[in-house]
Every structure is written in C-alpha cells, then in structure tokens.
Amino acid sequence: MKNPDLILASASAARLRLLTNAGFACVPRPSDVDETAIKNDLRAQGASVDVVALALARAKAEAASPENGSTIVIAADQMRALTDGWLDKSPDRAAAARQRMRVQGRVH
C-alpha cells in the first residue's frame, strides 16, 4: 500500500482543518506517545519548556512515521511557560479556569 504524501501526527481536528484548508491532502495518524513520561523525565533534568515541546513533537513524529520513511510527517506540541513552571493542556474546564487565573496579568 502506498503511503500518504503527508501525515499529521495528531488527533487535533483544528490542525487537520488548517492543513486541509491550506490545500494539503493529509492523513491524521495520532500516536500513543506517553507524554507524561517524557515530560517527567525532562522536568527532572531541568529542561526548558521549548526543549520539552520539541522532544514531544519529535516522539510523535517518529511514532507516526511509516517504516520506509518516504512520507512527510508533521508533528507539534504546545506548552506554556511561566517563570515558576510549565502549563500543560487542561484536562477539564475547571483546570482550564484555574490556569486562566494563574496566568492572568502575567507574561506567559
């Protein structure tokens, strides 16, 4: 079977829509990367938020890549940095509200 020309290593409907609206034919292929393990490992090493986001994106891309490597894979991750730590995706509305309060009036 021929590999698609472009793989989106994400389950994000918004990212897929952006690519599709830009004229790209792509196939979503979410990965089952253990983001928590990667974040915990890098946090213990004192890594910056940009290093963590890049490591997560790389892990997702590698997991979604076909074995023959002939397809372009797009992977991304986003994290927010504060002077006193990182902010991850909120698991629910209550956590999102707490994060909004935490960043209110602060550079992030």
Description:
With 108 residues, this protein is of the alpha/beta class. The chain has four helices and five strands, in the order βαβααβββα. It has a three-stranded parallel beta sheet, with helices on one face. Strands 4-5 form a two-stranded antiparallel sheet. The longest helix has 16 residues. The mean pLDDT is 86.
Keywords:
single chain, 108 residues, alpha/beta, two-stranded antiparallel sheet, 4 helices, 5 strands
How large a portion of the residues is in β-strands, by DSSP E?
5-15%
What spatial order of strands do you see in the largest sheet? 2-1-3
Q: Give the number of DSSP strands.
A: 5
Radius of gyration over C-alpha positions, nearest whole angstrom: 16 Å
The SSE string, one letter per element, is: EHEHHEEEH
Shape: globular
The separation of the N and C termini measures 45 Å
* Largest beta-sheet details: 3 strands, parallel
Percent helix among the residues? 40-55%
| Average pLDDT metric | 86
Structural class: alpha/beta
Low-confidence stretches: none
What's the tally of helices? 4
Write the layout of secondary structure elements.
Blueprint: E1 6-8, H1 13-21, E2 27-28, H2 35-44, H3 49-64, E3 72-74, E4 80-82, E5 85-87, H4 93-103
Parallel strand pairs: 1-2, 1-3
Antiparallel strand pairs: 4-5
Question: TL;DR?
Answer:
Helix content is 43%, strand content 13%. It is an alpha/beta fold and 108 residues long.
